[in-house]
C-alpha cells in the first residue's frame, strides 16, 4: 500500500483506512490505569453540590453502577476540595473503589488540597493561572507572554510535586470556551491556540518527569474539536509525548441532539484510533451518560481486525485542516450546495402515496397543497414506480432504478435514474435525458476506466455504499481515490443499518457518517434501517448528523452543558423551557450554560445565550457580547426573546 504522502500529512493516525488504536503511555489513576493497552475507559461527572456529601455519594454510586469507571466532581474552592476526602471515604466504606477526579477551575489552591485526597485532578490551562480572555483585544509583548509562562511554572510545578507525593494523576483539560487572554492574544480562537495552551503544561510535566498525565481538548463545535485533537496528537508526536487522550464534545445538549452530536465528534476520533477514555456530556442525569458512551466505544471496537482496505496511493489532504472537497454542481447536489438528504424506500414491498409525509412533507387539509417542513428530504428512492408519483410534492426529487425510469418519467419530470456500477460502465446513457445520473457503487468499482467515464459525465452523482466491517474507512478511501484522480463527481454516502433501538441507530450512523462530513468528503446522506424504527426517526437522524457535522442547518441548534456543582439553577428544566420557546427559530443557535467557566467563551459559537451568573441570576448574550448582566432567572427567557426581537432575528411560530 502506497500511503507515504498521506501518513506524512496525517501523523495523528497510524492508518487512515485501517483501524488500529493509538498506543499511548500508561497513566496510573487509582486502581484503574488509563492508556497503553488498557480498555477505553468510560467516565462521567456529578452535578451535585460537592458540599452535599450525601447527595454526591449517592449520585456517584448510581454513576458507577451504570458503568462509570471514573467519577469527576466539581471543586470550586477549599471547602469543596476538603469535602472530597469525606466523599471518597464514604464510597470506600460502601465498597466502591472507582477513582475520583477533582474538577478545578480558577483555583490552584483548591487543586493542591484536592490532590491529597482524589485519584486525579483536572486543571484547565485557560484559567489555572492566566486571566481568562475578556475579548477586549489585549496585546501581550514577548516579555509579557514569557512572564505568563513563568507564572504557570511557579504554580504548576508545586502542584506536580504534591501529585507525585500522593500518586495523583493530572488531566490537562483545555476547553474552547475558556482560553486565556494571553493565548488568545497570540493565536486567537483557533485550534493552534488550544493546542499550544495544552502543550505549555505538558512540556512542564515532561521536564518534571511526571508521567501520570491525561489530556483533553473539548469544544461544543464538533469540527473544531476533531481538528484540534488531531493537531494536538500530531504536535505531541513531534515532541515524543504520548499521553492518553480523554475525548468528549462539551455542551452537546440532551436527547437526540446530544447523542448525535457526541457521536459525530467523539466517534470521528475513535474511528481514527484515538482516545483512551470518553465522557458523553448530556444535559440529563449523569448516570445516563456512561451507557451511551459504552455503546459508542463497543461499536467502534467492532472494527478491530477487519479485512485490510487498500489505501489510495496519493493525496495532499491534511485532515487537521478545515477541508471541503471540491466538486462540480449537478442540479442541487455538489458545488456550494448544502448536503442533500435522500430517503431510501427501495426495501418497501409496496408503494405508498404517503411516502412524502414520512420524510418531512405535510398535506394542507384546506388547500390540498404540500407543505415542506424543516426536515423535508430532498429526494426519495423508490422501488419501481406508481402513477401517483405525479401528485408528490414538486420540491421532492424522485429516484428510480434505471430500468423503470422511462415509464416513471411520463408521470413526473422530477424522476432521476439510478444505475448500477456495471450498467454505468458498459451501457450508453445518452437516452437518459434526466438532470442527474445517480450511480450506485462501492470502493471496488473505482477502476481507472470507471473514473475516466465519470469525468466524462457531467450529470453523474455517486451513491457510495459499503458493507465492509469498517464501512467508515472504506467510504473514506472511496473519496480519497476520487481525489487521487482529480475526479470532482459529487458523492452521497449510503448506509443500511438493522437497529431496533433509536439510540443505537443514532450512535452508529453518526459515528461513521458524521466523521465523513467532518472530513469534508460528502455531498449528501442516504440512511436506511431495516429494524423497528420509524421512517420519520430515520429521516430526522440523517438531518441531525448533517447539522452536528456543521454542513446543513435544519433546526434550531441548542448548545447546553451537562451541569455540575457550579450550576445554581435547574438546568434540565431551563433547557426544556428554552426549547419550547425557541424551537421554531431554525436559523439560530441558542446556548444555555450553567456557569461562567465555559459559558462566556462558548457564546462565541452561538447567536444568543443564557449563562448562569449566581444563585437565581443569569446573564444574557448576543454571541460574546454581554447584553444583560445578573438578571433574575425567572425573567431571563422573556428578556432573551425581547433581545432577539430587538436584533431582528425573531420569527413568530407558524
Number of strands: 27
The general outline is globular
Helicity level: 25-40%
| Mean pLDDT over the residues | 92
Instruction: Please give the order of strands in the largest beta sheet.
Output: 3-4-5-6-7-8-9-10
Rg, alpha carbons: 26 Å
Which structural class do the helices and strands define?
alpha/beta
CA-to-CA gap between the ends? 56 Å
The number of helical runs is: 20
Oligomeric composition of the shown chains: single chain
Q: Report the biggest beta sheet as strand number plus sense, adding barrel if it closes.
A: 8 strands, parallel, barrel
Low-confidence runs (pLDDT<50, min 5 residues)?
1-6
Q: Roughly what fraction of the amino acids lie in strands? A: 15-25%
Note down, in words, how this protein is organized:
The chain is an alpha/beta fold. The chain has an 8-stranded parallel barrel with strand order 3-4-5-6-7-8-9-10, surrounded by 7 helices. Strands 13-16-17-18-19-20-21-22 form an 8-stranded parallel barrel, surrounded by 4 helices. Strands 23-24-25-26-27 form a 5-stranded mixed beta sheet. Strand 19, helix 14 (448-455) and strand 20 (460-465) form a beta-alpha-beta unit. Helix 9 runs parallel beside helix 10. The longest helix has 25 residues, at 142-166. It is globular. Residues 1-6 have low confidence and may be disordered.
Amino acid at each position: 500500500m502506497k500511503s507515504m504522502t498521506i501518513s506524512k500529512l496525517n501523523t495523528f493516525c497510524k492508518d487512515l483506512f485501517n483501524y488500529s488504536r493509538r498506543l499511548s503511555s500508561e497513566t496510573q489513576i487509582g486502581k484503574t490505569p488509563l492508556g497503553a493497552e488498557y480498555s477505553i475507559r468510560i467516565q462521567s461527572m456529578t452535578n451535585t453540590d460537592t458540599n452535599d456529601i450525601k447527595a454526591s455519594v449517592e449520585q456517584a454510586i448510581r454513576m458507577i453502577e451504570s458503568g462509570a469507571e471514573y467519577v469527576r466532581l466539581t471543586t470550586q474552592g477549599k471547602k469543596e476540595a476538603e469535602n472530597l476526602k469525606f466523599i471518597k471515604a464514604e464510597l470506600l466504606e460502601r465498597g466502591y473503589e472507582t477513582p475520583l477526579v477533582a474538577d478545578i477551575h480558577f483555583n490552584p489552591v483548591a487543586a493542591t488540597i484536592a490532590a491529597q485526597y482524589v485519584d486525579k485532578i483536572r486543571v484547565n490551562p485557560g484559567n489555572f493561572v492566566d486571566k481568562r480572555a475578556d475579548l477586549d483585544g489585549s496585546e501581550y509583548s514577548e516579555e509579557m507572554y514569557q512572564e505568563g509562562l513563568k507564572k504557570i511554572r511557579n504554580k504548576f510545578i508545586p502542584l506536580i510535586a504534591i501529585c507525585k507525593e500522593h500518586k495523583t494523576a493530572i488531566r490537562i483539560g483545555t476547553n474552547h470556551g475558556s482560553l486565556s487572554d494571553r493565548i488568545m492574544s497570540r493565536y486567537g480562537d483557533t485550534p493552534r491556540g488550544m493546542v499550544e495552551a495544552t502543550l505549555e503544561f505538558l512540556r512542564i510535566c515532561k521536564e518534571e518527569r511526571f508521567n501520570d498525565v491525561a489530556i483533553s481538548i473539548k469544544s461544543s463545535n464538533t469540527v473544531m474539536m476533531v481538528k484540534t485533537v488531531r493537531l494536538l496528537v500530531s504536535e505531541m508526536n513531534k515532541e515524543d509525548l504520548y499521553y492518553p487522550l480523554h475525548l468528549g464534545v462539551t455542551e452537546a445538549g440532551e436527547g437526540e441532539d446530544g447523542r448525535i452530536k457526541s457521536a459525530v465528534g467523539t466517534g470521528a476520533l475513535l474511528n481514527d484510533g484515538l482516545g483512551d477514555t470518553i465522557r458523553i456530556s448530556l444535559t440529563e442525569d449523569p448516570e445516563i451518560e456512561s451507557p451511551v458512551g459504552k455503546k459508542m466505544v463497543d461499536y467502534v471496537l467492532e472494527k478491530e481486525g477487519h479485512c485490510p482496505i487498500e489505501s489510495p496511493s496519493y493525496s495532499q489532504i491534511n485532515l487537521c485542516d478545515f477541508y471541503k472537497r471540491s466538486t462540480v454542481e449537478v442540479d442541487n447536489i455538489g458545488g456550494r450546495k448544502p448536503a442533500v438528504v435522500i430517503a431510501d424506500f427501495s426495501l418497501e414491498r409496496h408503494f405508498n402515496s404517503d411516502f412524502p409525509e414520512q420524510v418531512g412533507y405535510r398535506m394542507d387539509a384546506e388547500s390540498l397543497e404540500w407543505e415542506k417542513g424543516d426536515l423535508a428530504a430532498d429526494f426519495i428512492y423508490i422501488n419501481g414506480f406508481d402513477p401517483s408519483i405525479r401528485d408528490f410534492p414538486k420540491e421532492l426529487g424522485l429516484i428510480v432504478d434505471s430500468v423503470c425510469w422511462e415509464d416513471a418519467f411520463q408521470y413526473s419530470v422530477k424522476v432521476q435514474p439510478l444505475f448500477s456500477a456495471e450498467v454505468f460502465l458498459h451501457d450508453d446513457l445518452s437516452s437518459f435525458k434526466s438532470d442527474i445520473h445517480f450511480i450506485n457503487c462501492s470502493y471496488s468499482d473505482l477502476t481507472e476506466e470507471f473514473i475516466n467515464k465519470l469525468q466524462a459525465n457531467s450529470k453523474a452523482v455517486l451513491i457510495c455504499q459499503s458493507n465492509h466491517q469498517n464501512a467508515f474507512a472504506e467510504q473514506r478511501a472511496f473519496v480519497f481515490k476520487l481525489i487521487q484522480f482529480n475526479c470532482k463527481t459529487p458523492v452521497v454516502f449510503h448506509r443500511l443499518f438493522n437497529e431496533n433501538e433509536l439510540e443505537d441507530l443514532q450512535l452508529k450512523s453518526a459515528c461513521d457518517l458524521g466523521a465523513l462530513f467532518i472530513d469534508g468528503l460528502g455531498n449528501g446522506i442516504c440512511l436506511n434501517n431495516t429494524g423497528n424504527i420509524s421512517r420519520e426517526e430515520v429521516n430526522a437522524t440523517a438531518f441531525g448528523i448533517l447539522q452536528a457535522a456543521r454542513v446543513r442547518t435544519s433546526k434550531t441548534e441548542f448548545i447546553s452543558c451537562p451541569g455540575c456543582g457550579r450550576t445554581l439553577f435547574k438546568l434540565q428544566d431551563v433547557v426544556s423551557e428554552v426549547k419550547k420557546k425557541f424551537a421554531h427559530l431554525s436559523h439560530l443557535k441558542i446556548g444555555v450554560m450553567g456557569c461562567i467557566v465555559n459559558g462566556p467563551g462558548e457564546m462565541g459559537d452561538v447567536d444568543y445565550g443564557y449563562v448562569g451568573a449566581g444563585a437565581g441570576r443569569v446573564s444574557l448574550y448576543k454571541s460574546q457580547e454581554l447584553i444583560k448582566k445578573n438578571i433574575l432567572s425567572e425573567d431571563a427567557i422573556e428578556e432573551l426573546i425581547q433581545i432577539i426581537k430587538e436584533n431582528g432575528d425573531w420569527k413568530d411560530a407558524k
